[in-house]
Amino acid sequence: MTTTSPTEARAPRAAGSPSFEAQRAALAGVVAIPVTPFAEDGSVDPDTYRALLRRLLDGGITTLTPNGNTGEFYALTPSERRLVTELTVEEAGDRAAILVGVGHDVPTAVASARHARDLGAQMVMVHQPVHPYVSQSGWVDYHRAIAEAVPELGVVPYLRNAQLTGARLAELADACPNVIGVKYAVPDAARFAAFARDAGLERFVWVAGLAEPYAPSYFSAGATGFTSGLVNVAPSVSLTMLEALRSGDYPTAMKVWEQIRRFEELRAANGSANNVTVVKEALSSLGLCRREVRPPSRPLPESERAEVAAIAAGWSI
Hints:
Blueprint: H1 21-27, E1 30-32, H2 46-58, E2 63-64, H3 78-92, E3 97-102, H4 106-119, E4 123-126, H5 136-149, E5 154-159, H6 166-175, E6 181-184, H7 189-199, E7 205-208, H8 215-220, E8 225-228, H9 235-246, H10 250-272, H11 275-285, H12 302-314
Parallel strand pairs: 1-8, 2-3, 3-4, 4-5, 5-6, 6-7, 7-8
Helix pairs in contact: 2-3, 3-4, 4-5, 5-6, 6-7, 9-10, 10-11, 11-12
């Protein structure tokens, strides 16, 4: 297969095709990943989920990603994923752009993307393929099949594969102009800087997909947005970091970084085993939702809960 260099001329956009300007703008900010709260019987708790969404919206968040990893995407059933999408679109209304997480096999991902489109969502985020054998050309084919099925939606690949080259992303976007941004989650700022430039730095919106801990270094290399699970707990903290990064005030951004450091270290420990657990524990300590998570995650041990509660209580929430 012949790849297209990002420096070569691009095919003009088809007449009448969407410009995705609003979607691109929505990605250049705090891209919140809401948790999915569970009721006492283990089912999704719609009322609590809506309340958590209202808290984010009232806190100034304008981009929401239902069915992200912090929302326990892989632990939800297909009907639960549809429910979460529906609740998010209904609750947000015109207050936020909706970037719906989709994935699994191609037919499932396409069906989820079309469901999101029919509800009025503006974008989909395509989860990193979990198949153990992923070729670079196969990665392009997978995302192309999804993007071509919903040309009206902005498409954002969630990229965690350090082996993928920027030229492959450029190849995908040559075929699918609705691929407008990237959630880049390889923990290597130098690799990100090179990848973004190989793919086309100005061509895509670059979202730092490893949240606040990596946002300062990734912004210095060209990112203009970052994802956040912490935002569920303290929207103002995430927005303070965004404001500092947008203005180039790295000393202030790093003060926020120090403020959240221990919280994010707890989430990242042991291969991010407690990534969602710590967020839900903090929300539980604030009386906002139950702490329960689904396997393969696990609730935080009693001995570690006090530290999380103390951190959350210390933020201006």
